[in-house]
């Protein structure tokens, strides 16, 4: 096993604050870690095309994306776990009867099955990113889809959970829930990277804030929840740092002894 350390960072609410801005201290911290010879990677619910600018800004080419379903190590795709196509077709058919839109996401693009859906527009606005969702109700056919967004309320979600055992549902927004393969998570994607690099558990670190970070924060030996994180993330982590907009990344790394 290598003595090298690896640090995984979530994006929204972790590297980026609530205004989707990256504090300068967070950017400098990433480069300081790399200068010390550590591996730095991203672990996010976003698909690769949704954080290309961030990867370029931080000069990071290893990442766990789509909540663990599309994993890249040093620019090379090392693991993919697409959604079951038959189950996705069935969920599409059922969702349409309830007028619940879906957004199908692969590594290159995302398309909605209902045009100009109000909840889809709200989700895009919440991201505050330079992205748009096109319309293609058949986008999921004949290609691998790594994550789907289902536009429904928290009250409506258990109905889908009961029917579709091939999927896990992870809510991150009042009107949207992430749909991923059953047992798929950032933690599983992280294991794909750490096993290939031969990095010991005690040298693995992760920062996150949301419900989709809980498995990661429970699984990674040195886990840190952001001060702005949800209660579940804080309970799962070994340590809680300050908020993202209060230099939480730098503060957490200092508390861990990785930066001075």
Automatic annotation (TrEMBL):
SUPFAM superfamilies: HAD-like. InterPro entries: Cof, HAD-like_sf, HAD-SF_hydro_IIB, HAD_sf. Pfam families: Hydrolase_3. NCBIfam families: Cof-subfamily, HAD-SF-IIB. This is Cof subfamily protein (Haloacid dehalogenase superfamily). It comes from Paenibacillus brasilensis.
